[in-house]
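Reviewer comment 2.1 asked that we show a complete input and output for one of the modelled complexes. We chose the guanosine-5'-monophosphate case, as it is the one discussed in the main text.
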Amino acid sequence: MLLYIKIIYNITDWGGILKLNERGLLVIISGPSGVGKGTIRKALFDISDNNFCYSVSMTTRKPRKGEVDGQDYFFVSKEEFEKRIKENGFLEYAEFVGEYYGTPMDYINKKLQAGKEVIIEVEVQGALQVHERLPEAVFIFIVPPSKKALIKRLQNRGTDSPSIIKKRINKAEREYSLAYKYDYIVVNDDVANAADRIYAIIRAEHAKTERSIHRYYKLMEGKE
Ligand code: 5GP
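Response of the prediction step:
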């Protein structure tokens, strides 16, 4: 017991978390469009004790009012996006309602190796691609409290035309059936609450035996 406590104090890295694995976690926040992924992600970053990094995606969609290039997205042309696809520059990418969205590869590797938690926010096809390549990542599916709530949110956002909203709603209907592929489901009943639950998930994931046993044994053998 005493030894256990000593280890805990030696390896506290952030937020008092007991981090036995040195590599950061890749956390995928996913779910239907309009469910509030972006708002939850921002609330998650506002929780003071964290070493999270947000991987800014690249898209061919036009910026919405108030969106900043390099902060909300890297806004690029279709030609530039397709060039990056050919160069294998994405961890994943997907076509969503007529536009490309993708996660640039270079940033993620660098941050994970530095022990940072990398948060990416992607739609469902993209999350499933990451699952194929990096099944050890943490997959979180955000759902609305009801279908009605999602439709209302998409309509009230006032950022998309009625035809795009309809496409997004149709897509959401298909995406719900893929929830079983994720590790966790978080209901967006309240933003702060949902962010809190994701924070708790990340902490718990660090304590998973398969992520921590290797270093734990090294510590026991006095090799660190
Ligand atoms: P929006 O146009 O509303 O910003 O994004 C449309 C959808 O694309 C949302 O579900 C959003 O989470 C998702 N998305 C944003 N970035 C990426 C990305 O890099 N890859 C994939 N696959 N989806 C993304």
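The chain has two domains: 16-51+116-224, 56-114. We note this here for comparison with the apo prediction described in Section 3.2.
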